[in-house]
Amino acid sequence: MKKALYFHEAERLYVFQGLSCEEIAGILNISTRTLYEWKKQGDWEKKRLDYLKSSQDIAGQIENLLRRAIREADENPTPQNFYAVVQLLNALHKARGIKVVEEETDDERRQKLLEAIEAEFGVK
Description:
Structural class: mainly alpha
Largest sheet: none
Shape: elongated
Order of helices and strands: HHHHHH
Mean pLDDT: 84
Number of domains: 2
Strand content: under 5%
Distance between the termini: 58 Å
Radius of gyration: 20 Å
């Protein structure tokens, strides 16, 4: 009964959210022993590693696009090109699991973007 109700949610929390069995046990009110059994049955460790590898691949692809967008924005500084840089930077942060704060003014966003670009790529 518990497996039918909680298995997929526990797997999601372990594989995609990176939580430990102990943390999941506290959230779902399931014994860690049960979770370790499910982890073994579902091969969650391999799934987590595969997910992390694919996330790294995606982050690398976004990073390449971001570099191109920065060059384009530098050569042709239009609002659309700056917007593309900001969107790609947010996507990169999301792919790396970094939460991006949205409640900022345009000037604050521009300043943070410039700082992030300088920090990430050494561009000034």
